[in-house]
Every structure is written in structure tokens, then in C-alpha cells.
């Protein structure tokens, strides 16, 4: 496809002293409305360098762009506005989408490079809550987006399957649990035991010592401790995998914290050799005062390891195993300090790749009125949230389209989509308050709205074909019939897809894709309401259908990137 920005930048750069094509490219903007052109150069940004008024610059450049793709150029109040040839523009974009199909918007920028993403990473024996959902969905979207950009992406679930909480759980299980209850209730029962431990330990602090004792035994390889631990892990994994199936998420590695048991010792030794480890009242830590951070604890008094110890071992292991270009960690911003410390430690150890470790933090999720603290036990379980979303969607479908064949399947796709999209629709760093009304609104800026718009495009194509096929009935179209503002508005949006995916990949920000999809859906719905598609005039009908098909392809590609399914009938 013609890269218009590049084309214009290439034509202008030779006339702008001291600026290369790349620099001009960075200055070009898409004007807020088409009356101001398709691309625009704000010349006031150049007036200092060129020592000329913005208007003089714009005037001098006006005659410099002549190309068959450019209809005219205007100089208005210091802006150089470029108007593209509409017919060529529409034809170029739509043919490109139709020809590329499932790969429209992709690129090979990342080919030959590996990116490792550590995401989801729930804690064993604690329920999977909506905080983990955000990590799961952001990580999954980044996986699809980066792959679409050509990278090899490795998905790692750094399960929280090691740590003092297992000591607590073992103590609680032995005192108040039963095999039968754990087998029957699964994580629910493990959570009950965990909460009970904390309740009891409030008045009987010696329980904490007992728990620490058990964790130490576990780390030393005690058979009974190991047997119980393994069982708790299996029970939890079974439930997590149900959720991953529902969400359509999978992993390339489940190497969790316990995977590093035998890989921590060498790291500790290395820290010692490099004089980074200091003893402090029996425990071992890395001082980070010089970097305005509290020390990072690496070994407790009793010699047991910590979250940091395992993460240090994991980073080294991942570099050795995957030779990554970048290693990404997706967690809540509550862990900002942890990762700043970790990355600094890797740097102090002398690893030049420490600069390639990237924390991708996100804001907290709250559900009106509910708390997410595990210790208190009143957490919002993701499974409940998802099943409610599916049930509510099922009701909406029942009202909207009672004749639909596979209601359950569609309710699952749209219900889950609503939750996922809601998590990905604002900048990841923002805290979000979850609201049912907002997430499930078929007319708002939601997952269901975009999925529904995609299904609407499919439905038009089916009607045109008189069958269940959503292929384009005829090849070839006359782009000169797509010059009205609604149709061009759609084409303009479609053109931006690749650029948006690129931005989302660079900023590791899936919301750029989600918001873009809402823009495409809105542009399409305007076109759909203003321009009848299945008209008698065969040429007009063919041209409009080509645009519908291009929209359907783009929406489907985009929805897949953020992990949503794309039912053809809703
Ligand atoms: N299990 C942790 C939690 O639930 C997240 C782990 C993130 N990954 C890591 N390598 N530290 O908070």
C-alpha cells in the first residue's frame, strides 16, 4: 500500500534545510477533519529552525508536492494541507485490505527477534481475581500485537507456586483441613484455609513461626511438605486452565517460581562474588541506597528465598534460554518498586541486557463496592465475573434476537469479549472501576459494540450472497463511487490500522488498538445508515460491498489482536 506520509515527507524534505525525511515524517499530522486535508504539516514547528514565519514556510512548500496521488495542496494559517486524490486513495486502501485479508495491518519489523512476555502469573492456592485478568488480557493482547509485527513471542506464566504462603497453607490444612474438602471444593477450600490461617494468626502469632518452619522444610526437600505442595499446585492449575480456556489464552511455558529452586544458589553466589550482597541481622540483601531505593531482600535469616531471589534467577535463565531482545513483565503498578529494584540488581551484576527488561504496569481494577484483598477472603472471583457476563449477555440476546441458533456460544463470545474489552479500553496505567452497564452496552464504546458491528458487516455480505458466505460476491470495484464523505471516512480509518498496531507495539499499549476499533465501527455505522448498500445499481452495490468487506476484515483482524472472538452472527 502507498505510505502517504512517507510520500509527502519524501517530497518535502529536500526543500527543508537541515531536515531529513524521517524528521518531516514525525511532523506530519492527520488533520482533525477532512476539510483541512488528509495530511498536514504544522509549519510553526519549523519556524524557529528555518527562521521564517509559518505562513512563509507553508507558502514556499505549496508548489513542491506534485504527485498523481495528490489532488491539491493548500497553505492555510501556517499549515500546509495536503489533499489526496480521493479515488486513488479509496482504491488503494480497499484493494490492499481485500488482498491482504488476515494479514492486513501486519508487518515484518520484528522478524528474527524474540520477545518474552511474563504475564497472568497467578498465585497458587489463591483465587484468580480480576487483577490477574488484567495482566492476562494485556499480556495476551501484547502477544498477538507483537506477533503481528513479526516478533517471535514467548508467553511465560510465572506461576506464584513458591513462597511462605505454602508454609501457611500446610499448617492450616493440617489443623483445619481435610482431603475430601480440598478435592471437592478445590481453590475455594484452599482459600478458606488461607483466610482461616490469617484469622487465627492474629491472636496466635506462633502460627507464623510454624508456617515459616514448614516453608523451610519445603525448600529443603521434605517429603511430606513436597507432597502437599504438589497437590495444591495441581488443584489450582486445574481451575486456572478452565479460565484460560474460556478466555482463549495459552502459554508457551509454565515455569513458575518453583522452577527456579535449583537456579537461585548460583545467582546468590554471583551476587556474593560481585560484592553486592550484605548481611543484615542474619539476612542477606542488596543495598540500593545510591539509587534511592530500599534494599532488596535476597535471603531470609533462615536461609529461605524470596520473590526477588526467584525473579533474579528467572531473568538470567530467560536470557540464556531465549536470548530475548526484550523481556516484558505485565503486573499491577503495585509492583513498580519490585521491578525497579530487580532491574537495578541485574544492571549492578553487570548484565548489559538489564536495559532490555521492561515492566509494563497497569492500574487496579475494582468492582463497585467490592474489595480485592485475598487475606480477607471477600475477593471477586474471575470465574463468577465471567459467568455473570455470559448470563447477562444471554438475556440481552434473548431480547434482541430470540431466533438466533447458537445463543450459548455467542453469549460466551460476547460476554467474555465485554469483560476483556473493558479491561483494554483505557490506558493500561489507569485504575478502572468495573461497571456492568458500561461493559455490556451494545451501543457504547465496548467490545459488544465492535463485535456487533463486525457481525453487521457479515450480515450485509451474507444478504448480498444470498447464502451463509461472507466472501465478496464479485471481484473488482469502482472506487469513484466511494467518494462521499461517509465512505471516505471509513476508508480513512482503515488506512490507519497498521500505524495503530505499530504504536500499540512500541508503547506496549493495547488500548490503542481497542480505541481504534471503536473509531472504525463508528465510521462504518455512519456509512451503513447513510448509504444503502444492497441497491439495484450493480456498480454502486459492488463498490459499497467492497468497502463493507474491507471493514469486516479490519475489524476481525483487530479484534483478534486484543483477544476477542469474532462471531459472524449476533
Ligand atoms: N504472582 C505475582 C502476583 O500475582 C505476579 C508475578 C509477576 N511476574 C514476575 N516475574 N514477578 O502478584
Describe the structure.
The structure is a single chain. The chain is globular. It is built from 22 helices and twelve strands. The strands form four sheets. Strands 5-4-9-10 form a four-stranded parallel beta sheet, with helices on both faces. Strands 1-3-2 form a three-stranded antiparallel beta sheet. Strands 6-7-8 form a three-stranded antiparallel beta sheet. The protein has helices spanning 4-12, 21-27, 47-50, 54-61, 86-100, 130-148, 164-176, 179-185, 187-203, 206-219, 223-247, 264-273, 307-322, 336-348, 382-400, 407-424, 436-439, 447-465, 485-495, 497-507, 511-530, 538-561; strands spanning 39-42, 70-76, 79-84, 114-118, 152-156, 277-280, 283-286, 296-299, 326-332, 357-362, 365-367, 432-434. With 570 residues, it is of the alpha/beta class. It binds arginine. The site of arginine has 10 residues, from helix 13 and strand 9. Residues 118, 121-123, 158, 160, 311, 314, 329, 331 line the site of arginine (ARG).
